[in-house]
C-alpha cells in the first residue's frame, strides 16, 4: 500500500505470527481427574493391584478345584507326625508340593483351603455390600428428597435399626432363620438351591449384614441429597414434568455415586472381618467348606502344635482388610481432593 505524497510503502503480508508461548490445554472430566489423582498415589495403586490379585484368586479357586488342580478336602495322613496331629516337618509341613503347609489333624493342603476360603468370604462380603448399598441408597434418596413426614419416618427406622446389637441378633436368629431359608424360601420356584446348608448359612450372614449395615449408607446419601435437591437442574426437571422415579434414579442418583463408591470400598473389608468373626463364633458356613473365619476358629485348637496354622490365615485376613481399606482411602482422596488422610 502506497500513501499519497509519500515515498513510504507498506507491504501487507498474510504470513501468521508464530507465538511459542501459546500452549493447547485439553480439558479433562472430573472422572479423569479423579483417576489421575488415584494413579498418582503409589500406596493406593499398590493396594489396588493387590486387591485385583486377591479377587482373581477368589474367582480362580473354584475353577481350579473343578479342574482337579486344587484339592482342598484331600486328607494326607502320611504328612502328619507320629502323634497324628501336628504336620511333619518344619513350619507346618511347608514343601514344594504344599507351599503353605498342611492343616493339623487332617493333612489337607492349606494353600488350596485358603484360596477357597477367600472365595467364600469375598462372595459373602461383596453380596452383603451390594444389598447394603441398594437398601441404603434408595432409602437415603427417598428420605432426603421427600423430606417432611417421610424423612422423619425413615430417620426413626434408622435409629431403631442402629439400636439393635448386631452380634446378639445374629446369634439369636441363626437357628430359626436358617431353618426358614432351607425350608420356606427353598420351596419357591428357582430357590431350591437353598436346601444346601452352606448356601443357607451364607444367605443368613448376608441378610444380617445388609439388614443392620444399611443405616450409615442411608445417612450419607441423605446428606448429599439434601444439597442436591435444591440445584437448578432438579428444578428444571420438575418443571418439565419429570416423575419421582426419574428424579430419584436419573437426576439424583448419578450425583451421589462418589460417596457411595467410597463407602463400598470401605464396606467390603468391614464385611470380610465381620464374616470371619461370625464364623469364629460358630455362625455361618460350616466346615468342611472353608472360610477365613472357620479356618481361624479351627486353628485356635492347634496354636501350640502348629503355630503356622494360626499365623497364615490371620496374616492373610489382615492383608485383605488392610489392602481394601487402603483402596477405599485412595478412592476417597481421589474423589474429594479437599479431604485428608
Automatic annotation (TrEMBL):
- The answer, when asked if Transport is one of the entry's keywords, is yes
Q: Which residues form the ABC transmembrane type-1 domain?
A: 118-328
Upper taxonomic lineage: Bacteria, Bacillati, Actinomycetota, Actinomycetes, Propionibacteriales
Organism this protein belongs to:
Nocardioides daeguensis
Its family remark reads:
Belongs to the binding-protein-dependent transport system permease family.
One Pfam family name is BPD_transp_1
Q: Where in the cell is it found?
A: Cell membrane
Q: Which UniProt keywords apply?
A: Membrane, Transmembrane, Transmembrane helix, Transport
- Per its record, how is this protein called by name? ABC transporter permease
Give the bilayer topology.
Answer: Multi-pass membrane protein
Q: What is its main location?
A: membrane
User: Where, by residue number, does the polypeptide cross the bilayer?
Assistant: 46-70, 114-145, 157-179, 199-221, 252-272, 308-328
Amino acid at each position: 500500500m502506497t500513501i499519497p505524497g509519500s515515498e513510504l510503502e507498506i507491504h501487507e503480508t498474510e504470513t501468521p505470527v508464530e507465538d511459542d508461548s501459546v500452549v493447547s490445554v485439553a480439558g479433562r472430566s472430573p472422572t479423569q481427574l479423579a483417576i489421575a489423582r488415584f494413579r498418582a498415589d503409589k500406596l493406593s495403586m499398590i493396594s489396588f493391584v493387590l486387591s485385583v490379585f486377591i479377587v482373581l484368586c477368589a474367582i480362580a479357586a473354584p475353577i481350579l478345584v473343578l479342574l482337579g488342580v486344587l484339592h482342598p478336602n484331600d486328607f494326607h495322613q502320611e504328612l502328619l507326625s507320629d502323634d497324628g496331629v501336628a504336620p511333619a516337618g518344619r513350619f507346618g509341613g511347608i514343601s514344594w508340593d504344599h507351599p503353605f503347609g498342611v492343616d493339623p489333624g487332617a493333612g489337607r493342603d492349606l494353600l488350596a483351603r485358603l484360596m477357597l476360603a477367600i472365595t467364600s468370604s469375598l462372595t459373602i462380603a461383596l453380596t452383603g455390600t451390594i444389598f447394603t448399598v441398594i437398601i441404603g441408597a434408595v432409602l437415603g434418596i427417598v428420605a432426603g428428597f421427600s423430606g417432611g413426614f417421610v424423612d422423619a419416618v425413615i430417620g426413626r427406622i434408622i435409629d431403631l435399626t442402629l439400636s439393635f446389637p448386631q452380634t446378639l441378633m445374629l446369634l439369636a436368629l441363626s437357628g430359626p432363620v436358617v431353618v426358614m431359608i432351607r425350608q420356606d424360601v427353598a420351596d419357591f420356584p428357582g430357590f431350591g438351591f437353598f436346601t444346601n446348608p452352606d448356601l443357607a448359612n451364607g444367605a443368613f450372614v448376608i441378610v444380617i449384614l445388609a439388614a443392620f449395615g444399611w443405616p450409615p449408607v442411608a445417612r450419607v446419601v441423605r446428606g448429599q441429597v439434601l444439597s442436591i435437591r435444591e440445584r437448578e437442574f432438579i428444578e428444571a426437571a420438575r418443571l418439565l414434568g419429570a416423575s419421582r422415579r426419574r428424579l430419584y434414579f436419573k437426576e439424583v442418583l448419578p450425583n451421589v455415586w462418589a460417596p457411595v463408591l467410597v463407602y463400598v470400598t470401605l464396606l467390603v473389608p468391614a464385611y470380610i472381618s465381620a464374616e470371619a468373626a461370625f464364623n469364629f463364633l460358630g455362625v455361618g458356613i460350616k466346615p468342611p467348606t472353608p472360610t477365613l473365619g472357620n479356618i481361624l476358629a479351627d486353628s485356635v485348637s492347634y496354636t501350640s502344635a502348629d503355630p503356622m496354622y494360626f499365623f497364615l490365615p490371620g496374616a492373610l485376613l489382615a492383608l485383605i482388610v488392610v489392602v481394601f481399606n487402603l483402596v477405599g482411602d485412595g478412592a476417597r482422596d481421589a474423589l474429594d481432593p479437599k479431604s485428608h488422610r
